[in-house]
Write a structure and sequence with these properties.
It holds the Pfam family Glyco_hydro_28. The chain is mainly β and 224 residues long. It contains no helices and 17 strands.
């Protein structure tokens, strides 16, 4: 990782330029762990992993005016690996441009974990040829072996995607793959417009998610 903040408070990060090859492994740009009141602004991050990753114990995190790509996008998590209890809350990502990333704005949690990811807002986001522009994955499994379904999960709730626009490099532009036992709740979509990079209509995948939509939402949402 390039820059890491662990167990910190009152952090201000601005005007950073972080660069690594797109195929370089585990080269997160800015990694925030166990920290509070962190403000990241006016930065360009081009790496081989998450541009910004926010993991357990973090709250009151703000990222504004971010350019990201290549990389794996802007991520909450992963959370809940090996049955751990992890928490992240009160995150705002406002005004970001993602270019050619393998994910856009993402929340990723392992089956079998505990805790929560809640009160998270992604707004004013532009996607340029991004795979999985909007994704909540409660079945994250970064392992050569199948993880399998488990009874517990990190609860994901109170997540808003507002004014997210641009092009998707995958047919599915919005992917909500949530836990059967601990579904995603209070997920809001407002003024979203995503099409495939070719201009063709994109799709939404929904599993075990409670969705609300306001304004125009493209692609259309699905029931689960």
């Amino acid at each position: 990782m390039h820059v890491t903040f662990s167990k910190c408070a009152n952090v201000r990060i601005s005007r950073l330029t972080i660069s690594a090859p797109g195929n370089s492994p585990n080269t997160d740009g800015i990694h925030v762990s166990g920290s509070t009141d962190v403000k990241i602004s006016d930065s360009v991050i081009r790496t081989g992993d998450d541009c910004i990753s926010i993991v357990s114990g973090s709250r009151s995190i703000t990222a504004t005016n971010i350019v990201c790509g290549p990389g794996h996008g802007i991520s909450i998590g992963s959370l809940g690996a090996n049955g751990a209890e992890h928490t992240v809350s009160d995150v705002l990502v406002d005004t970001a441009r993602l270019e050619g990333t393998t994910n856009g704005v993402r929340i990723k949690t392992w089956q079998g974990g505990k805790g929560y990811a809640r009160n998270i807002i992604f707004r004013n986001i532009v996607m340029d040829n991004v795979k999985n522009p909007i994704i909540i994955d409660q079945n994250y499994c970064d392992s050569p072996k199948s993880c399998g379904e488990q009874k517990s999960a990190v609860a994901v709730s109170g997540v808003t995607f507002q004014n997210v626009r641009g092009t998707s490099a995958t047919a599915v532009a919005m992917d909500f793959d949530c836990s059967r036992t601990v579904p995603c709740r209070g997920i809001t979509l407002q003024d979203v417009h995503l099409v495939t990079a070719s201009g063709a209509p994109a799709k939404t995948f929904c599993r075990n998610v409670n969705l609300s939509k306001y304004g125009t939402v493209v692609p259309s949402t699905c029931s689960s």
